[in-house]
Amino acid sequence: MSSVPRTRAVACLVACLLLAACSRGTPAPAERSAPAAPPSSATPTSAEESGLPKIVVLGDSLSAGYGLLELQAFPALLQARLHQDGYKWDVVNAGVSGDTSAAGLQRVEWALGQGDVRILILELGANDGLRGLPVSEMKKNLAGIIEVAKRKGIAILLAGMEAPPNFGPEYTVAFRQVYRDLAKEHAVTLLPFLLDKVAGNPSLNQADGIHPNIEGTAIVADTVWNVLRPMVDAASSSSGGLRPPEPPYAVARGGPVPRSAPAAHSLRSFAAAA
Description:
CATH class: Alpha Beta
CATH architecture: 3-Layer(aba) Sandwich
Radius of gyration: 19 Å
Distance between the termini: 9 Å
Number of domains: 1
Structural class: alpha/beta
Number of helices: 10
């Protein structure tokens, strides 16, 4: 995040749009109802049979791609980026519109049962904040999801959100702090605000003023990728292979030219990427 004042201002604007949109009560034409099994960028069968390591995105309408085609949702864009950069990974979109942190906790075992899951992108909480649900309960639910993933040896990328201001400043601050506290307490990677550079910008959002449009979703995917890629590199290195070939590296002063660059070039700091 660039600054706290900017984040709060954006959060206030987003909150007002959220409340206005909810009062209309008319879903976007392309909204998908919550299925028994969440949609994915690859069908569960093909994803499991591929044998490739997987990234699961457990989230709400922001992950599900409300108002967009499935291939336009940010998990699908992450899949395209992985393939483009030579990573042999699958992305499973386990986003369901309307889900709260409690609903996510109920289906986390299913979501993480999609084959060889290595990384979980946890994108939940926006609907808790919209409904003014207790922050303590949201934290408990998100912690439960994190604990399930950690027991399975899965790395977690926690995507933060902002709460609407109509429940008061104490609620807004406490809501925001949940993500910081969880990241610290459970030693997981934190993306402070999923909608950074997108929220509050009419040109990057759909008519409801809440959900990113195609252009906005591309920015969200870039924001996530900047934090996700070092995690994929780390997981690929620890498992051997599964990462793109490194470019030729010329040794200075006329020395021999190795076939590949030193492996250390890909070991990036999560803090620097965030």
